[in-house]
Write a structure and sequence with these properties.
Elements (H helix, E strand, L loop, with lengths): L5 E12 L2 E7 L15 E8 L3 E8 L9 E6 L5 H9 L5 E8 L11 E6 L3 H14 L4 E7 L8 H10 L4 E7 H4 L4 H8 L6 E5 L2 H13 L7 E4 L12 H14 L17 E7 L2 E8 L5 H7 L17 E6 L2 E3 L7 H5 L2 E3 L3 E3 L3 E5 L3
Parallel strand pairs: 7-8, 7-10, 8-9, 10-11, 12-18
Antiparallel strand pairs: 1-2, 1-6, 2-5, 3-4, 3-6, 12-13, 14-16, 14-18, 15-17
Helix pairs in contact: 5-6
The protein binds FE2/S2 (inorganic) cluster (FES).
The site of FE2/S2 (inorganic) cluster has 13 residues, from loops.
Keywords: 2Fe-2S, FAD, Flavoprotein, Iron, Iron-sulfur, Metal-binding, Oxidoreductase
Cofactor: FAD
InterPro entries: 2Fe-2S_ferredoxin-like_sf, 2Fe-2S_ferredoxin-type, 2Fe2S_fd_BS, Beta-grasp_dom_sf, Cbr1-like_FAD-bd_dom, FAD-bd_FR_type, Flavoprot_Pyr_Nucl_cyt_Rdtase, FNR_nucleotide-bd
Length: about 375
């Protein structure tokens, strides 16, 4: 069975900075529903590769859903094959194979007040949230945006324009490493301390996200108002034949002895599970899952169009919320302790722990 991916045409490639390009896709009317998204979500892109056939990468949508546009923004990274290929080769009229939007770095209520942190190209999902909140919501938006230097600020002009248009509701604080050095945890905490009732979203390099996360925890931001997005690089091939992907995944799993949050090798419960699933307004019920395969594969066998991207426990595209019972995970490189405490689990890694299980994909 082939995974469901789609070939879309590139209508525009925009040079945002010397190192960053935005890529706009044309989504035909018959795929509009499949490619509907919420601000903060990402697309999984297949970049052609001489060595491996293709390289799969997740790139956040920098456009906002209400614009009707599907735009990702990609920044070169040193030795980053896919980002360099996109920046060097992609042009209007080309086509790329994509998986539909996914991800859980999304606001539940666009009318909330938002405290946003973007580091470098981490601005990509953050500007989608900011623009949506300003144009469709009613709350205030504060953005702390850190960059290496002035020339590396992506969307500088648009942010200035939004600040002018929404002067009463939008504040941007630019932080330039070339001028101020790296932002410190204490400095970030002082900044955030003025906005402790806001809902926080953070995306950027790992040290930046760690500093922001610590600052917000110190200020006792509750879990439901603290969100962070991790950049992911996919080792497997979510575009290929499922059997091939599973074989590659097994090899990767053997090589990976990481001891991450909430992981388990074997199901603790081996009998048939009474399973209820809520997905896109539909209810499914099964009574014959024995944990011989992970939950995502079981649902696929049953014909359920469950979301996924990496199949490796790296991206959270397949995340569900456990409403009743529990699910162990073979590998988890994306959910933290708080996510687990909220009942979030990765179905691509999910094995049964209880004889009844009720999950929802609707968050
Ligand atoms: S599909 Fe990426 S974590 Fe499950």
């Amino acid at each position: 069975m082939a995974t469901e991916s789609f070939v879309l045409k590139v209508t525009e490639v925009i040079e945002e900075t010397a190192d960053a390009r935005s890529v706009v896709f044309e989504v035909p009317s018959e795929l509009q529903e499949t490619f509907a998204y919420t601000p903060g979500q990402f697309l999984t892109v297949a970049v052609p590769s001489d060595q491996t056939g293709l390289a799969a990468r997740c790139y956040s949508l920098s456009s906002s859903p209400h614009s009707g546009r599907h735009q990702i923004t990609v920044k070169r990274t040193v030795d980053g094959y896919a980002s360099n290929w996109i920046c060097d080769n992609l042009k209007a009229g080309d086509t790329l194979r994509l998986l539909p939007p996914s991800g859980i770095f999304t606001p539940k209520d666009v009318d909330a007040d938002f405290l946003l942190f973007g580091g470098g190209s981490g601005i990509t999902p953050v500007i989608s949230i900011a623009r949506t909140a300003l144009e469709k919501g009613t709350g205030k938006v504060v953005l702390f945006y850190a960059n290496r230097d002035q020339d590396s600020v992506i969307f500088a002009r648009e942010l200035t324009e939004l600040s002018a248009e929404y002067a009463e509701r939008f504040t941007v604080v630019h932080w330039l490493e070339s001028v101020q050095g790296l932002p410190s945890e204490a400095g970030l905490q002082l900044f955030a301390s003025y906005f402790t009732t806001y809902t926080a979203f953070c995306c950027g390099p790992a040290p930046f996200m760690k500093a922001v996360s610590t600052a917000l925890r110190n200020l006792e931001f509750p879990r439901e108002r603290r969100h962070q997005e991790k950049f992911v690089s996919l080792g497997g091939n979510p575009f290929g034949d499922v059997e091939e992907v599973l074989a590659a995944q097994a090899t990767l799993a053997e090589a990976d002895d990481a001891d991450d949050e909430g992981e388990a090798e074997e199901p603790a419960f081996a009998g048939p599970v009474a399973l209820e699933v809520e997905l896109d307004g539909q209810q499914y019920a099964f009574d014959d899952w024995k944990g011989e395969e992970v939950l995502l594969e079981f649902l696929e066998k049953k014909g359920v169009q469950a979301p996924f991207s990496c199949r490796e426990g790296n991206c959270s595209s397949c995340a569900c919320v456990v409403l009743e019972g529990d699910l162990a995970m073979k590998h988890n490189d994306v959910l933290d302790k708080d996510d687990l405490a909220d009942g979030i689990r990765l179905t691509c890694q999910g094995l049964p722990l209880t004889d009844t299980l009720k999950i929802s994909y609707n968050g």
